[in-house]
C-alpha cells in the first residue's frame, strides 16, 4: 500500500497481487461449494421485490424445494436493491431498472398489464370508457400506470383514486375485495385469476400493455454456482410453463 496523508491506495504491485488473490478466493469458494454439496445441504440466499415474492414466488417455492432436496432457500423481500458486495445474497429479483454494476440480469417474463377487478364489479364494465364510473386503484410504484393504459386505448379520463398502495400485492388484494379496479400484471395476479377472485373485464375488448417488469440479477462470477444455476433453470421452466402460455 501507499499512504498519502490520510488516504491509502494500492501500489501497482498491490493491484497485480489483488487480481491473483481474487482468483484464489474464487477457486477457494468453488472448492467449498463442492465440499458442501458432498456433505449436505446448500443454501440459496434470495432477495426479491415484495409483490413478486408474495404473489408469485413463494407459492411456487415448494416445487423448487421438491425438485432440489439438497438446497435450502432463504428468502428476503424489500423494495431495496441488493448490494452484492456485502455477500448477503446470491441473487435478487428486482422490479424496475437494474442499477447494480458488475451483474447479469435475466428478464423473468414479459408481463401483460390490464384492468383487474372482482367478478361482481366486472358486470358494470363493458367498454374501456366504463372505467370512468368506477373507482380506480392506484399503485404508486408501478412503471405502467393508468395514464399509459388510457392513452393506449384512446381515452382521456380523469382517474379518481380513492385508494392507493405502494405495492401491487396490496392493490390486487383490494381489487379482489371489490374496492375497485386495479391496473396490474396478470403474472402477479395468476393465482387470483385462476381462483376466480379476479377477472379481466375488458379482455379482448381493449388494448393491453406489455413490458418486462422483473429481472433476476446476480453477480457475474456466481452464475456457475450450482444453486444459482439450478434456480435460473427452474425459474425459466416455471415461467415458460405458466397457465395461458
Structure description:
This protein has 245 residues and is an alpha/beta fold. The protein contains seven helices and twelve strands. The protein has helices at residues 12-39, 50-67, 119-122, 146-152, 168-176, 190-195, 226-240; strands spanning 2-3, 8-9, 42-48, 71-77, 91-95, 103-107, 111-116, 136-139, 164-165, 181-185, 209-211, 214-219. Helix 2 (50-67) links the parallel strand 3 and strand 4 (71-77). The model has no long low-confidence stretch (mean pLDDT 86).
Structure in a nutshell:
This protein has helices at residues 12-39, 50-67, 119-122, 146-152, 168-176, 190-195, 226-240, and strands at 2-3, 8-9, 42-48, 71-77, 91-95, 103-107, 111-116, 136-139, 164-165, 181-185, 209-211, 214-219. It is an alpha/beta fold.
Topology at a glance:
Layout: E1 2-3, E2 8-9, H1 12-39, E3 42-48, H2 50-67, E4 71-77, E5 91-95, E6 103-107, E7 111-116, H3 119-122, E8 136-139, H4 146-152, E9 164-165, H5 168-176, E10 181-185, H6 190-195, E11 209-211, E12 214-219, H7 226-240
Parallel strand pairs: 3-4, 3-5, 8-9, 8-10
Antiparallel strand pairs: 1-2, 5-12, 6-12, 7-10, 7-11
Q: Give the neighbour order of strands across the main sheet.
A: 4-3-5-12-6
> For the residues shown, what is the average pLDDT?
86
The general outline is: elongated
Instruction: Report the biggest beta sheet as strand number plus sense, adding barrel if it closes.
Output: 5 strands, mixed
Low-confidence stretches: none
> What percentage of the residues does DSSP assign to strands (E)?
15-25%
Task: Give the assembly state of these chains.
Answer: single chain
User: How many beta strands in the DSSP annotation?
Assistant: 12
Number of helices: 7
Distance separating the two termini: 57 Å
Query: Secondary-structure element sequence?
Result: EEHEHEEEEHEHEHEHEEH
Main structural class: alpha/beta
Helix content: 25-40%
Radius of gyration: 23 Å
Amino acid at each position: 500500500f501507499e499512504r498519502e496523508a490520510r488516504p491509502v491506495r494500492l501500489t501497482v504491485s498491490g493491484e497485480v497481487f489483488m487480481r491473483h488473490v481474487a482468483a484464489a478466493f474464487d477457486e477457494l469458494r468453488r472448492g467449498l461449494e463442492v465440499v458442501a454439496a458432498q456433505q449436505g445441504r446448500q443454501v440459496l440466499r434470495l432477495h426479491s421485490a415484495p409483490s413478486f415474492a408474495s404473489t408469485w414466488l413463494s407459492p411456487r417455492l415448494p416445487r423448487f424445494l421438491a425438485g432440489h432436496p439438497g438446497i435450502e432457500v432463504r428468502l428476503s423481500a424489500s423494495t431495496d436493491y441488493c448490494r452484492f458486495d456485502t455477500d448477503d445474497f446470491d441473487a435478487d429479483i428486482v422490479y424496475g431498472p437494474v442499477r447494480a454494476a458488475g451483474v447479469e440480469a435475466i428478464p423473468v417474463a414479459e408481463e401483460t398489464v390490464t384492468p383487474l377487478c372482482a367478478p361482481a364489479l366486472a358486470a358494470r364494465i363493458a367498454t374501456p370508457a366504463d372505467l370512468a364510473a368506477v373507482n380506480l386503484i392506484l399503485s404508486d410504484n408501478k412503471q405502467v400506470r393508468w395514464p399509459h393504459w388510457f392513452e393506449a386505448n384512446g381515452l382521456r379520463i380523469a382517474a379518481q383514486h380513492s385508494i392507493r398502495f405502494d405495492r401491487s400485492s396490496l392493490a390486487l388484494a383490494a381489487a379482489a375485495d371489490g374496492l375497485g379496479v386495479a391496473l396490474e400484471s396478470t403474472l402477479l395476479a395468476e393465482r387470483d385469476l385462476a381462483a376466480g377472485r379476479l377477472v379481466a373485464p375488458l379482455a379482448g375488448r381493449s388494448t393491453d400493455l406489455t413490458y418486462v417488469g422483473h429481472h433476476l440479477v446476480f453477480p457475474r462470477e456466481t452464475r456457475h454456482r450450482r444453486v444459482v444455476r439450478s434456480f435460473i433453470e427452474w425459474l425459466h421452466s416455471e415461467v415458460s410453463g405458466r397457465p395461458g402460455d
